[in-house]
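User: Hello, can you help with two protein structures?

Assistant: Certainly.
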Amino acid sequence: MMLGSAGTLLGYLSLAFAPHVWLAFIGFGVFSGMGAGMVYATCVNMVGKWYPERRGGKTGFVDGGFAYGSVPFVFIFHGYMDGSNFRWVLVSAGVLLAAMVAVAGFYFRDPPKNWWPASVDPLNPPDDPRARRSLAKNPPATKQFSPLEAWRTGRVALMRFCLACTSGVNIFGITFQVDIGEEAGFAAGIVATAMSLKAIVNGTGRGVIGWLSDLYGRKQCLLYVCAILGFAQFGIIFAAEIKNLPLFLLFSAISGFGGGAIFPMFAALTADYFGENNNATNYGMVYSSKLLSGLGAGMGAVVVGAWGYNGAFILAGCISIFAGFVALFLQPPGRSRNKRVTPNPRPLGEG
């Protein structure tokens, strides 16, 4: 968290004072990108460690902060910042965000290894019907997998592919939704409002889908999310074509819901499949695929130039739906489709 805080500040300083635009790109992309990844991965993995029996809702709730935090900056950067004030706006934002991350991170503590709440026995059904249902739909990992063991199961590679596709579609939408909205004739302020609405629903979607995954299963919810994200891209194209602002806002919100919901699903699935002890490293392997999904903006620009917005958004929708098809093949390691394997005993309470 402390390194992430420093990276955030350095990234904004790079944007504010770099003598060349490419240095600004590199400085912000490297420092703030690494900083954001450190903070995000630490937060979502830590909450999953402390609440292993109902990690979906808890992870989604924390994950939502990653989206909510962007809302005020949509208006600040899009509507207020200009060539005359950009330096002090960027420096102020960097100092504020770095301080908030550092102060929060100071209080972070990891649970002991093999942590499990003393009130819930992982080997016997709990009395709470909600916890019972959650553990039945998302049974604990059959063992604590090391990163190498997790990789050898083949599930990490499948998760990486699915996350790269869906987060790439999400980044593509964030990058080009403003452009397609303005091309459709919607006012810039309305488009900024649409992006803020998308960010709010993006955060809400993470918490809601995490809670639903505790009830109905992580994989099932992931499949629905991939489909929702994919079909929302077709809806955005349709709304822009007929120049219908309410529909544009609606499908923007739906796209935000799907784009946000994918992240807590993979964070929780990683712990479900491979255990909590090495969750940060295991999820790091999965989440690192976002490095490739960042091409959603660059490659998206190439596709938009070649096929136009319609072709690009249709391709993005198809990619998300295909990721859902690939996710059908995800299965917990050591647990067959028809045979339930009892997890290894874990100490109750603190270690």
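That covers the first. Now for the second protein you mentioned:
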Amino acid sequence: MLVLAADAPQGEDPTGFFGVLAHAAEWFIGLFQAGATNFVGLLVGIIPLLIVLLTAVNALVRAIGVERIERFGEMAARPGIQWYPVRYLLLPVLSVFFLTNPMCYTMGRFLPEKYKPAFYDSSVSFVHPILGLFPHANPGELFVYYGIAAGITTLGFGLGDLAVRFLLVGLVVILIRGVVTELITARLLARNTRNEGVVA
């Protein structure tokens, strides 16, 4: 038999269909209350930190000079294996640190077309490993790092060690990805050139 909310004894929760509706409504509003609590935590915690970091990084870029940073990008475009670490390690790290995501990809404009896919691969692979030490670089995706960090802190470990290891592994990965993607791009460009020669 269906028990109406009005029929429920005073002080007791409704049961039946109306009880399910009441619990669903409580869950629904609780979801937004949890989001609001999280937002307030960000507002008094990470957002002021990000504003200060962005201000400091922008001041540093202006102090160094945009022209000097652009000249470094042109230097990284030189051919040869000795320029791999400059092109796929230093340039992506500096781009992500100074220009942040997604502006960091614009540094690829100084590279020849054959290097652009590999530079992009290196840069896009570094926007997460840098977050532990420099959250200003990709604040929109801090939830990835904080998800990992939550598990580490629950186990009682510190975040400093995690942040440094995350960064070091990221540096190795972006160099490998840059070199491999450059080789794949060169092979595809050579195949495309051969095919165009056959068609002509």
